[in-house]
Amino acid sequence: MSIYEYNGSALIAMAGKECVAIASDTRFGVRNQTVWREAQKIFQINNKTFLGLGGLNTDIWTLKETFRFHHNLYALREERDMSPKVFANLVSHVLYSHRFGPYFVSPIVCGLDDDNVPFLCGTDEIGAQEITHDFIATGTAVESLMGVCETFYKENLEPEDLFETISQCLLAGVDRDCLSGWGAVVHVLTKDGITTRKLKMRQD
């Protein structure tokens, strides 16, 4: 088993019309054994930026604190929050600086820029970026997630439609992966604020 599959994960970020959504499962496991069903894999960096981390759980929490430290330091020096694009570059820099002993994670950065245009970016373990305008997924269920996203996704979705679409994509994708599941959380970010909802899914 790959070290990236050791704890299991499933994450999706998806763009809509002046809104963006990010969703993940909440299972924490050790290989096929479920240990906890309230694991956090999505972190709010500021009012316009979210970070999703899939991979090894110990590295997820180490990096989450590292990124938050650098963001807070930037906010103190510049007297403003990082934009999603700047934060994605920070993620790439931190990961690439550890390329000879990499963190076993696959991050997703999503958010809205100053003009409320969605920003989606994923990286590999050494920080190589993949920027997209529609959706991006990572985790042990990535193949099935990408398949259902390609089927369900439409451009310029309104916030409620975006929530329904990303929820159905996550539920359908996780049903085909034994290393993720046990509930899900969905965050929808618009220019007016953030809406967070929890989903029920299979409990096996």
TrEMBL record:
Keyword Lyase in annotation: no
Superkingdom, natural source: Eukaryota
One GO location term (cellular component): proteasome core complex, beta-subunit complex
Subcellular location: Cytoplasm; Nucleus
Any Pfam family matching the protein: Proteasome
A Gene Ontology BP annotation from the UniProt entry: proteasome-mediated ubiquitin-dependent protein catabolic process
Cross-referenced Gene3D superfamilies: Glutamine Phosphoribosylpyrophosphate, subunit 1, domain 1
Keywords from the UniProt entry: Cytoplasm, Nucleus, Proteasome
Principal cellular location given in the protein's record: cytoplasm
Subunit description: Component of the proteasome complex.
Function: Component of the proteasome, a multicatalytic proteinase complex which is characterized by its ability to cleave peptides with Arg, Phe, Tyr, Leu, and Glu adjacent to the leaving group at neutral or slightly basic pH. The proteasome has an ATP-dependent proteolytic activity.
Family: Belongs to the peptidase T1B family.
PANTHER family: METALLOPROTEASE TLDD, PROTEASOME SUBUNIT BETA TYPE-3
Protein name: Proteasome subunit beta
Organism, as annotated: Anaeramoeba ignava
